[in-house]
Amino acid sequence: MIIPKQNVRNLMLAKEVVAAVERGEFHIWEIGHISEGIEILTGVPAGNVRGEDGQYPEGTIFAKVEARFSSMYEAAKEQQERKEVAGAGAV
Predict the structure, then answer these.
(1) Is there a smaller number of Cβ atoms within 10 Å at the N or the C end of the chain?
(2) Which residues contact 1 (CB under 8 A, 6 or more apart)?
(3) Averaged confidence pLDDT in the chain
(4) Quick check: helix, strand or coil at residue 89?
(5) Averaged pLDDT, 27-38
(6) Considering the entire predicted model, what is its pTM?
């Protein structure tokens, strides 16, 4: 289970859950930022800090997301340009 750090003090668990945590059968992670949750869930560094070059570190989730968004943007841009060229020829 992943919970925000600010909610830890309000966490109430059944005895069975506490026992499962103690046996290592159940885990509770407290996080301060969504990037911590991403790392827990994927096992891959989130990379939430850009380098001096303005890029996320290679191999991180955020670098992969940014690359995918760039790819989608370029594809949409090319599609729009094709529509404009086709529309200009129809006039």
Answers:
(1) C
(2) 26, 27, 28, 29
(3) 94
(4) helix
(5) 96
(6) 0.72
- Taking CA atoms, 5 is separated from 16, 20, 37, 58, in Å, by 22, 21, 11, 28
Count of helix runs (H) and strand runs (E) in the chain:
3, 2
What's the pLDDT band for 30 if we cut at 50, 70, 90? very high
| Residue 32 contacts residue 5 (beta carbons within 8 Å) | yes
Tell me the per-residue pLDDT of 65-86, one tens digit each, with 9 for 90 and over: 999 999 999 999 999 999 988 8
Tokens of 21: 């945590």
Check residue 56 and report its DSSP letter. Answer: P
- pLDDT for 88: 77
Residue 73 amino acid letter: Y
DSSP assignments along 3-18, one per residue: EEGGGGGG----HHHH
Distance between CA 37 and CA 46 in Å, rounded?
Answer: 9
